[in-house]
């Protein structure tokens, strides 16, 4: 999950070989339809707030079974695009597997095992951490952040939640002899491959190219396209780049997220599930039989992610304690629980 940045106008959709220098007008795709309320904020029995958004559910055959809001307009999936970026690195020729491939698709929490593996991967490919172009940051996980700061550590590029992705991108560039200093340029050979992977997986053209919080190119697709992309990864042929990414993420979910994260819990406790959240309250999930979902909370409120995800999983027939844990979002008053954020659909 990339750190927030100041709003920027996204670049127009273009063929990868074309220039991305011309600026487009800010997209208004999400404002064409007033999205429904997906979550309510209830304090002491009083609804004090609402979070609107759009959500799509696909059946095992890939057909849309439920659409709430505007699910065909482009959105920035943010870090929910990371499985596709990792598949692009594989297509470019980097041979990653296991925890290393999971970290390449991660928005990691910045726990010691995340940082240690990122540094190990950099060393394995002879890369200086200074080559990373993701910004220095603190651990994404709040508990880990407190421990990190108490130790006297400072923001670091390796600690930033996207460092695994950036390490993998640098590694394949070094292996292929591609420029390292421009690996985040949308016209770089690696980013052109990733652009193609996103379009192949989503089954639609990339609608806009922007810059993610970590500095990497960010490709806009619809929520239907995002759900379709996750579905394509879980049903892909064994050995394909897409299936290798899905298998690594599902086998090592703690490297994709962290010890205290919903993506980890879901992939660990519901076998075969592929799950990845993104900044600005985006979430995509695919079940092993091809059913899938994707949603975005319009105001970017992360507190609505869990309740909405749990309700969507319920609609897909996913049951168990993990769904209840993901969906729990209590509100406190005076140090005690007085309400909750709850799904409203």
What would your notes on this structure say?
- This protein has 345 residues and is an alpha+beta fold.
- It contains 12 helices and 12 strands.
- A hairpin with a 2-residue loop joins strand 2 and strand 3.
- Helix 1 packs parallel to helix 5, helix 2 packs across helix 5 and helix 2 packs across helix 8.
- The longest helix has 14 residues.
- The N terminus is likely disordered.
Shape call: globular
Overall pLDDT level? 92
Radius of gyration, taken over Cα atoms and rounded to an integer in Å: 19 Å
The number of helical runs is 12
Quaternary class:
single chain
SS strand fraction = 15-25%
Secondary-structure element pattern, one letter each: EEEEEHHHHHHEEHHHHEEEHHEE
**CA-CA gap between termini:** 26 Å
Q: What profile does the largest beta sheet have?
A: 8 strands, antiparallel
SSE layout:
Elements: E1 11-12, E2 37-43, E3 46-58, E4 64-68, E5 74-75, H1 82-91, H2 98-104, H3 112-124, H4 142-150, H5 163-176, H6 189-202, E6 208-211, E7 217-222, H7 223-234, H8 241-251, H9 253-256, H10 262-269, E8 274-278, E9 282-286, E10 292-297, H11 305-315, H12 321-327, E11 330-333, E12 336-343
Antiparallel strand pairs: 1-6, 2-3, 2-12, 3-4, 3-10, 5-7, 6-7, 8-9, 9-10, 11-12
């Amino acid at each position: 999950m990339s750190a927030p940045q100041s709003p920027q106008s996204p670049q127009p959709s273009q063929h990868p070989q074309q220039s991305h220098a011309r600026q487009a007008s800010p997209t208004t795709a999400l404002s064409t339809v007033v999205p429904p309320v997906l979550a309510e904020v209830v304090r002491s029995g009083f609804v004090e707030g609402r979070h609107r958004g759009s959500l799509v559910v696909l059946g095992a055959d890939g057909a849309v079974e439920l659409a709430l809001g505007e699910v065909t307009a482009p959105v920035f999936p943010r870090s929910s695009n990371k499985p596709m970026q990792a598949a692009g690195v594989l297509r470019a020729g980097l041979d990653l597997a296991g925890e290393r491939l999971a970290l390449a698709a991660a928005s990691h929490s910045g726990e010691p095992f995340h940082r240690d593996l990122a540094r190990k991967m950099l060393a394995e490919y002879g890369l200086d951490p200074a080559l990373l172009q993701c910004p220095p940051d603190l651990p994404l996980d709040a508990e880990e952040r407190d421990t990190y700061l108490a130790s006297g550590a400072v923001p670091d590029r390796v600690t930033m939640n996207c460092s695994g992705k950036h390490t993998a991108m640098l590694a394949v560039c070094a292996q292929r002899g591609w420029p390292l200093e421009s690996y985040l340029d949308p016209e770089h050979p690696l980013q052109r491959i990733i652009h193609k992977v996103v379009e192949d997986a989503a089954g639609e053209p990339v609608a806009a190219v922007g810059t993610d919080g970590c500095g990497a190119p960010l490709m806009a697709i619809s929520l239907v396209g995002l759900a379709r992309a996750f579905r394509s990864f879980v049903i892909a042929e064994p050995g394909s780049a897409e299936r290798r990414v899905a298998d690594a993420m599902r086998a090592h979910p703690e490297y994709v997220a962290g010890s205290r994260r919903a993506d980890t819990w879901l992939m660990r406790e519901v076998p075969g599930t592929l799950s990845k959240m993104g900044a600005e309250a985006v979430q995509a999930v695919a079940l092993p039989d091809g059913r899938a979902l994707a949603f975005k909370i319009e105001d970017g409120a992360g507190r609505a992610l869990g309740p909405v995800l749990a309700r969507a999983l319920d609609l897909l027939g996913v049951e168990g304690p993990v769904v209840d844990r993901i969906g729990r979002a209590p509100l406190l008053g005076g140090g005690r629980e007085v309400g909750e954020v709850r799904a409203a659909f």
